[in-house]
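Q: Could you write out the predicted structure for this multi-component system? I'm mainly interested in how the pieces pack against one another.
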Amino acid sequence: MRTIHSPSAMTAWSQRLRREGVVIGFVPTMGALHEGHRALLRAARLKCDALVVSMFVNPIQFAPTEDLATYPRRLSQDRTICREEGVDVCFEPTPAAMYPKGFQTVVTVPSVARRWEGETRPHHFGGVATVVTKLFGVVRPDVVWFGQKDFQQCAVVRQLVKDLNFNIRLIVRPTVRERDGLAMSSRNAFLSTEERRLAPMLYQALLAAQRAIKTGMADPKTVQAMMRKVLEAQPAIRIDYLAICDPDTLEPLDRIDRQAVILGAIRLGSVRLIDNVLTRRTRGGT
Ligand code: PAF
């Protein structure tokens, strides 16, 4: 496995392989790899000839009040995981290499990014879309893998791949969960013992909503009220949002009469958790 720090060296490596007809797979990450990333790497390894992972804690997707300084950084552990999963290149640029003096371009995907995470974290998706666009330009992948846990991020990336004519196939893999259902996330490490005990309730509320919709509940307000009841039973949980939306536009549905995504975000102490499930109604509505 090679470690490459410079964007130009990364592009040179990629271009050489592309000329030889090698299919390049790419998993962008911010490091602090967990089992969810491992699942992405395994899926990717099976589908490409050469696999690149980026590990870059992207400063411009964090607001000044957010956890950029404390975001977990475990490079040597991450490199071991990459080696174990057959990664060919770890791309580890510095912030200065990605955003040199004078850098000014920002990529925005206004409509898909507007609601939900975009409301709570107005900086976030501009930073994500910009770095992902840069990473695609540097790594030049044929196929990229993202995790469903960051559902809105996947929608933003899908839109920018389409709008900017990237000739890249985007594969979204299902969320990997702990045994009790909590979605794997690098930030779970910051939960206290009591917060960790309560954290799976977000997934439980989403599953309850998914079941209700499957059996015919079609009014989003009723479903949301039901989820709220599950979560509000625990005073330590603060709800950021619960939403039932169109999976492509992320606009809220007036009636659940087609496939939907149920999105949720809660806070437990200083930790913010997000999760989602997809659903499709199976019989007549209420
Ligand atoms: O999901 C992440 O880890 C990040 O948002 C990403 C896509 C690597 C961009 O920094």
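A: Regarding packing and overall arrangement: The longest strand covers residues 237-245.
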